[in-house]
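Q: Here's a chain of 528 amino acids. Please give me its 3D structure as tokens.
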Amino acid sequence: MKQFTKLFSELDGTTKTNPKVDALSDYFDKAPEYDKLWTIALLSHRRPKRAVNATRMKEWAAEIAGLPFWLVDESHHVVGDLAETIALILPDHENESSESLTHWMEFIIGLRNLEENERKSEMARAWSMLSRQQRFVFNKLITGGFRMGVSQKLMVRALAAATGIEENLLAHRLMGDWTPASTTFEELVLSEDKDEKDSRPYPFYLAYPLEQPPGELGTPAEWQAEMKWDGIRGQIIVRNQQLFVWSRGEELVTDKYPEYEVLTGFLPDGTVLDGEIMPFRDGLPLPFTLLQKRIGRKKVGPSLLKKVPVIFMAYDLLESGGEDIRQLPLNERRKKLEMVVAEAPEILRLSETVSFDTWEELADVRSDARSRQTEGIMLKNQASAYRVGRKRGDWWKWKVDPLTIDAVMIYAMRGHGRRANLYTDYTFAVRDGENLVPFAKAYSGLTDKEIARVDRFVKQNTLERFGPVRSVRPELVFEIAFEGINKSSRHKSGVALRFPRISRWREDKPASEINTLDDLHRMMDLYG
């Protein structure tokens, strides 16, 4: 735990890439193998289920510290981080645990099997055995709020530096359905890739947003254009007569999409397709919000299968006949993909390319994307290999401009972390006659200076307080941007927005001129 706490402090103390890589590489070089395995798991979001909820942790910490619960709760709102709050209020201990990270991870997992009074006793014992910084890290491991600014790509880079194994090989080995209980560091990282599990997917290749004019990319003939589909990025794998479906979040979701099982008998053994899991009916995409009804279900019943049918929109072939073909140029992979999909059942579709001779022609197709239930255009260099992670140069997403609406802020909530003392999370409303109807929450899009100004307004114009939330005078107008809009019975407005954020502060517009609920509904009729 001492080594891992030191690593956490080093990673948390810098935003620069090279020092993070150096710290991780040094850790992977010196730490015990079982701790290295748990570190990889934690940085890959393979964390155990939470064993203690936030309220109980605050109650127990308040009791040990001899403080009233309300004060600890209020301190949490001010500090913005539960793990840090508890580490600060508990009596200071000079102890520095010599137990390993693995010991404490197994301790945390074991808490789930205890009665509440036993869990309370064990938590108190653990806090008494740890230094303040170790206690902070321990609390982070329990609460799940474990962020060190380390991407999977950065971790793989550090692991490659420590082991001498190529990054692309490591990235592939770390994919799949593994846990520290099911493997060892030797098996996962150091073993040669001869006996990989049949289910293991490939790391996904991700596109960058296109921010420059497309003409700067070169001649149109060098590029393949497709529609940008609105679904869940996934891979379909068929190996040894078994089918596996993976999401981009490295979740094995085969059971959630039983319709794909028919592909086991169709796709040749040793086939891996990259594409989009999409709700689809009568030859047309359905709104993404329908697919969300299936995402959270462990099992999908006949009724939901009928209401939300899916297809797999394939746009790349990564493995053919058991051979990794990611290094082939895109145009060659595309020809092979077309042959695989040519006689496929309707549930497997080919993402058709968009023909264009000039960038102006393609811009016209992009401007009409919403009417096709798509998000814009994907641009891929014809000569590109299928790489790992997000790389600049070969793949670009040219998304359609967002929808916007002007709204007034009616609620504000305190932020977290370094913004715990500022009101940074806002609720917005549109007019419905004489009433204001809330329809969206947003917390991104403002500069630090603008956030400070809004914070002053909130504190000077509060109408009511609800814990960390304040209702305010409806005076500040903002332009809210979003990617999509759909009907929703869960919201008072009757609509749900996709990816709402603040695009600009409309200081030029009074609250009397904001948009109306009818404007939102008309937008939904056009684009929902």
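Q: Can you summarize the key feature?
A: The CA atoms of residues 175 and 201 lie 6 Å apart.
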